[in-house]
Design goal:
Elements: E1 9-12, H1 16-28, E2 34-37, H2 40-48, E3 56-60, H3 68-77, E4 83-88, H4 92-104, E5 108-114, H5 119-126, H6 146-155, E6 158-167, E7 173-184, E8 188-190, H7 196-201, H8 205-225, E9 231-237, H9 245-257, E10 264-269, H10 278-289, E11 293-299, H11 306-311, E12 316-319, H12 331-346, E13 350-353, H13 359-368, E14 372-373, H14 387-397, E15 411-416, H15 423-434, E16 437-440, E17 446-451, E18 459-469, E19 476-487, E20 496-501, E21 512-518
Parallel strand pairs: 1-2, 1-3, 3-4, 4-5, 7-9, 9-10, 10-11, 11-12, 12-13, 13-14
Antiparallel strand pairs: 6-7, 6-14, 7-8, 15-21, 16-17, 17-18, 18-19, 20-21
Amino acid sequence: MLNTGKPHILVLDDERFMLKLLARMLTNLGFDAVSTCDNGQAALALLDAPLQPPDLILLDINMPQMDGIEFVRHLVEHHYTGALILVSGEDERVLQSIEKLVQAHNITVLGYLSKPVLPERLATLISRLIPYLPGAVKADRKVYGEADLRAAIANGDLVNYYQPKVSLVTGHVVGAETLVRWLHTTDGLVMPDQFVGLAEEYGLIDALTHMVLVSALPQARLWQTAHLPLRLAVNLSMDNLLSLSFLDEVVSLTAQAGVDPENLMLEVTESRLMQDQRVSLEILTRLHLKRFKLSIDDFGTGNSSLTQLRNIPFDELKIDQSFVHGAWANKTQRAMFDASLGLARQLGMQTVAEGVEDRADWDFLQQQGCDVAQGYFIARPMPAEKFAAWMLEWETRRPAPIRPAADLALCTLVLPRRCRALGKRGIEHLRRRCGQHIGWRGTGQSGIGLGKPGGNAPVIVNLYQFSQHSTQPGTKRHATRVELEQWNPNFRLPLQTDHLPVGNPARQRRDSARIFTFEPA
């Protein structure tokens, strides 16, 4: 039995049998104020009656004369304020499309039921009705103005919360996303969807982003000093990328905080189309060249699409939560998720799944081979001072890794950063640092294969060493061309990149190497 507050429910279906069946289910669930109609005109007449209008309508989609979609349009004309549950034997994708249409009409949709209707599913959907019943306590959504936000920025009322990002392979925490909050003096904690759009509209987004960075970067430095392997993510608005001075500001603030650019992930969401993308493309490309990491956020929604992947050198793809939560049980969502994941793999990008709400989501992502998870199943956003305690708590409840930790073989591949040979000193440095098995292939052509001794290497690369004429007459210089020879599909693409100084310390930047770390698939 449900504690329902006795809502009035209308069942609209052209089949007499379904009317009786649904009415009986509702009665068994404790609802006694149930009306039934077998056509749309009769249902609309009931809406106009002086009696209590229905709080909920169970609406069949396929009906003669007036189908469910047309009925919804008439509901708008009749100023219907209740909720709907869609009922149909149609394909799930059709039901999802109709659900979106009803929401576009600003009518509350509790969900949809596929025929044959299951009582448990019906009870679950109706349990969502309580907040929409007349008399239910509803918190008014306060609207803030430009002056309010400008004062909040000036007074330092914006604070950062951090939501963990966790490796789906090992279960270890690998990063955190910075999420800004407005600590209002009278209204308490105000969520970003109530003021970020306002900041963009009134040209305050640069000041807001500046405050986020000024607070987040020292926190990243503290975690770095505490030897916590956390890469900090900060959200950028496309409006931040309208001025070339923004790049200088990010570089300057990062250097002042003493944070390695590779430990800062800049997440970009294009919520609206940009008329001139030249400046934003220049800024993002230069940030990438300066070793900052770039993430395309909410991929597949809004304007975050294949065009951005083609034009901008992103390192990470964040799959939107609308394609993640419940994808294991939804064919359409799963197809969208699989397509995004496959695209990221082909482009050599790390994948982050947002909206991981429960263990079923987590298990699905592990099985599909996603890299990183983020969502309420792991943790809600929290102040920085609570992060360390949460990490200890997470260790007590995190799901088991795909394989026991002892069987995980982290493998490292080193390539010269500027096509320069590592030399024996660099190889020995790598051995001491990583303890990995390194093998050379061929005679005259050298290659590096890394992995457990006797095991399969994740990748084999040939390093062709040859001589070139220098710009100075009569002299030659040695160069190295790197070519991929073999890729082992049992390993994921690189999860992170680091720099290893080799050769003459006075020329570290020129003689450093790129280090790619692999995990088993």
